Amino acid sequence: MAVRVILVGQGLVATHFAVGIERIKRGELEPYGVPLAKYQLVYDIKDIELVGSYDVDEEKVGKTVYEVAKKAVGDILPVPETLKSITVRRGIHLGSLRGLPFKAKGLEDELGSVRAAIEALVEEWKKLQPDVVMIVATTEPAKPFHKVEDLVKAVERDDRDRLSASHAYAYAAYLYAKDTGRSVALVNVIPSPLARDDAIVKLYEEAKSIVLGDDGATGATPLTADLLEHLAERNRYVHSIAQFNIGGNTDFLALTIPERNKMKEETKSSIVKDILGYDAPHFIKPTGYLEPLGDKKFVSMHIWWKTFNGLEDELVVNMRINDSPALAGLLVDLARIGKTLTERGIYGTAYEVNAFYMKDPGPRGSKNMSRIRAYYALIDYLKKTGIIR
Ligand code: NAD
After folding, report:
1. Is ipTM beyond 0.90?
2. Of 259, 352, 242, 350, which Cα lies nearest the Cα of 305?
3. Ligand 1 neighbour 173 (Cβ under 6 A)
């Protein structure tokens, strides 16, 4: 019994995931940072098997995951040799690295059209037989379609401005599931709206598959959500929230491009109104790129509120957080849950799962809630569906 995983975007998050899984299998790593590690799920962490990896960066395509990992984290972590068996394949680019200092080429450039690129992926996946496809590529501008025919038309017309790479991968995974009759779980931890796109959810329902998303909730956002819940439960009135994030990894570099930062701002800001019930003035966004900080970002937060008798309180939080391992730990659960959901006949998307793991949980229009509440709701849901034994 294996959970066969394909990674889309062999960056730092994907690399921590691949390295961490292999180290857990070798018995040299405790699964700290994996939220459900202490529960017995249908699939064990050791059942996760990496079967494929995709990127569009010319520096990575054609290299093994071992080589990519050695370069990215080799000076701080032991990189298991088992990762030599997976070679990074060429994916669909659709401009997702545009404006960044990387040389990129997509299958659509090689094969002449997006449709041909999608078909090529489907053929590869028929051989790799993934249960789970994880999107951990660079944050890109993306808009939902909501109507299946509009998505199909954009592919047919080779509309490279309208289609995001995330949508192309999501459509490829759907076609793979439909053609083979194998269910697939698409896990989208980047801000592109996929679990919030009615068209994608509908297609996945039809193909007895599931999409989980959008945008993995790690770092400061879940902590802010829990602090806001604390204040809301005590009926304290929040005047303002400031939350800064400064990091030195390529994800932060990508977010220096305004249209990409906007994608993050949207997914991070939805917590305020959903949890407090009113839209307290706030500034919550990735704020800057500072290379020496590397992957260990600096987060600062200030919340100011009115308490009983009209007096005012404030809190200030400062943290340094390893950005990518935080998300990689969540992926370990999402892979196992994703596969089991489809085996339990749960298709489309699953709000209870998204509400805990994602910053902007699908389906469209779903509310954000504090992570503490979402955690207990998730445990109940997983027990009810038999995913936690
Ligand atoms: P990264 O820059 O290290 O890696 C991204 C990788 O995706 C790169 O190798 C890049 O070449 C590749 N890529 C870009 N476009 C692609 C495409 N079209 N097809 C295939 N590969 C493509 O970034 P990261 O730190 O690994 O983060 C990955 C994603 O996870 C980001 O979008 C980020 O917003 C999201 N995310 C990260 C965190 C976190 O680190 N804690 C939290 C939430 C969301």
Report:
1. yes
2. 242
3. no
In sequence order, what DSSP letters do the residues of 223-283 get, joined into one string? Answer: HHHHHHHHHHHTTPEEEEEEEEEEE-SHHHHHTTSHHHHHHHHHHHHHHHHHHHSS---EE
Regarding the beta carbon of 164 and ligand 1, being less than 6 Å apart is answered no
Instruction: For ligand 1, pick from 136, 166, 255 the residue to mutate: most ligand atoms within 8 Å of CB.
Output: 136
Q: Does ligand 1 have an atom closer than 6 angstroms to the CB of 142?
A: no
Token output for 114: 């997006």
Q: What is the pTM of this model?
A: 0.96
Ligand 1 pocket, residue 297 CB under 6 Å: no
Q: Would you give the end-to-end CA distance of the chain in angstroms?
A: 16
Element (H, E) at 301: strand 296-306
Q: Does any ligand 1 atom lie closer than 6 A to the CB of residue 165?
A: yes
Q: What does the H/E/C string look like for 33-60?
A: CCCCCCCCECCCHHHEEEEEEEECECCC
Q: Which atom of ligand 1 is nearest to the CA of 250?
A: 2
> Is the beta carbon of 93 within 6 A of some atom in ligand 1?
yes
Q: How far apart are CA 171 and CA 166, in angstroms?
A: 9
Residue nearest to atom 36 of ligand 1 (CA): 190
pLDDT, tens digit, for every residue of 63-121? 999 999 999 999 999 999 999 999 999 999 999 999 999 999 999 999 999 999 999 99
Ligand 1 centroid – CA 251 distance (Å): 6
Separation CA 220–CA 358 (nearest Å)? 13
Residue 254 Cα, ligand 1 centroid: separation in angstroms?
A: 9
Using DSSP's 3-state secondary structure scheme, residue 104 falls into strand
